[in-house]
Each structure stands twice: as structure tokens, then as C-alpha cells.
Amino acid sequence: MPASVVLPPDRSSANIVDETIDKARRAHDAGVRQVWVAQQLDFDAITLAALIGAAVPGLGVGTSVVPINPRHPMLIAAAAQTAQVATHGNFILGLGLGGNAIEQRAFGISAANTVQRLREHLTVLRAIVDERTVDFHGAQLTAVDTPVMPVALRGAAPFPIYVAAMGPRALRVTGELADGTLPYLAGPRTIEEFIAPTITAAAAEAGRPRPRIIAIVPVAVTDDADAVRAAVADSLAFYDQIPSYQKVLAREGASKAADLAVIGTAQTVTRQLKSYLDAGATEVALRPLQTELTDLKPVWDLAAAF
């Protein structure tokens, strides 16, 4: 499954859950086999993923991503286990470190020692997934439940865990404790020269399987690439101000985030996406760029045929 798609929410709809499930069903009908939903402050990604997977049998569904703050990993694990059962074993838990400014504004918390918290969070999740029990006392987290009662789903593997990691320390922790990474706006050069070797080495040192790298790429299929790129420039400019993305832009030799969007005809986009696989990505997840000039269906068709 080298290509999947991100489902963008439509807040103009009368019922965002019904609308997203319908969108997922149409994507599946077009041949898409894996979709992703993002955490928002007005709906919950894990719950929505569970509802999508239950409504569209056979469709893989994951979160991209759920911030580790402010929820405790035991609560995330309980929700993820529920989603894994609801989707009949087709759920992927995607986590993120979160945004400092957003968390301060929304929750009144300051993200100190973020990578240490990620390590502790993943350690708890790893124990629950692998051992079905946890007794952990860390610097930032405590998690005790002996045993953690598993949700029964005969024959299903435990839910996999991915982290949207791009910094060196976060990638090493992810390689040691998670199943892969979900980098966004990380181009082929960044994947080949930095992300793939860093996370792969960390996994090998920890004795874990080779991690998957699912590159999330902003995409538009269009015959007027210049017009679409101009139309999405402002929406992507947000990432130009974030230090982790500034480092990616520097590695890629790009001046702004919009330069890393893959925009063009189906043939052009397919060719550029394959360069991510050549660079070491396991697969690509297409995040449609929505404008008055673009449509979701061509992106779904491209993902299905990729």
C-alpha cells in the first residue's frame, strides 16, 4: 500500500461525522485503502477513526496526528484499543509532540522536556501493547495498571504506533519505541539524508524491526499548477515560521513551505511522489490541497493507482 490519503474536515457540513464517513466511503469506492484523520479541538480523531472504520469495512484508518499532551497514555491506549476493535484490526495510532503555542493557549500548559515526555509516553504505550500490563514511574508520567485488560479481538495484531517525528532526538526515541514515523513536508532529500538513517539506526540499536516511514505530502492534481500554488501559498506559510520546518526547508533548498507541495498533472505528481519512495519512504500519504481550483477525486484516483 504505497499511497494513502488524508481526509480533510468540511466544517460547512451539517454533520462533520456523517460527512467524513461519506467522504471515506467514496474514497474507498475509488480504490483508496488507507485514510488518515487529524486531531482537532472540536472533534476527536481516534473516535472519528473508529466510526469510519466501523462504517467502511476493510478500510484502514489512522490518526495523523493526536498530540501527546494533555492526555495520559493509558487513556490514549484505551481509546486506541477500542478503535482497533471497531475497525476490525485496521487502526493505526499516529501521535505528535504537539505545538507549544497552541497548548499554552488552549490548555494553559507549557511543554517542557517534550522529547523526554515522548519517551515516557511511548514507554507506557509499548508496555500496554506488548505486555498487556504497565507499572511505570517516570520523571513526568506515572502509569500503573496490573494487568491492563485487553479488548478481545481474536486474530488481530495490536495497534501500531507512529510518531510525527522530524528532529534528531524525537526520531531516535521513535525508532527505539514506535513502529514508524509520519513526517509532514519532509522532502526526499530530508528523508534520504536524515530521517531514514536516523530512525533506522535507532531501531536497529534497540533490536526493533525496521521502522516504516510514511511521508505526508501536500498534493494537488491540476492542469494549472502555477495558479494552485499561488492559491495555497498563504495556507502553507504557517509552517515557514516553525523551527523544525525551517530546518527541513533548509535541507531541501526551499525558500518556503509551498515549494514542497507536489502540484501538477497526475503524471507529474506521480513522478514526484515516487522520488519519496526512492529516498527511503515506505509509502506516501497524500494530503489534498483544497482550493476552488482543485477536487478531491483526482487525488483519490492517483492514490489508488499509485
From TrEMBL:
Outline the extent of the Luciferase-like domain: 14-282
Which Pfam families does the record cross-reference, listed alphabetically? Bac_luciferase
Q: Which InterPro entries match?
A: F420-G6PD/mer, Lucif-like_OxRdtase_MSMEG_4879, Luciferase-like_dom, Luciferase-like_sf
Superkingdom of the source species: Bacteria
Q: Name one GO molecular function term.
A: oxidoreductase activity, acting on paired donors, with incorporation or reduction of molecular oxygen
Keywords (alphabetical) are: Oxidoreductase
UniProt cross-references to SUPFAM superfamilies, sorted A to Z:
Bacterial luciferase-like
- NCBIfam families associated with the record: F420_MSMEG_4879
What is the designated name of this protein? Answer: LLM class F420-dependent oxidoreductase
Which species expresses this protein natively? Mycobacterium talmoniae
Q: What is the lineage of its organism?
A: Bacteria, Bacillati, Actinomycetota, Actinomycetes, Mycobacteriales
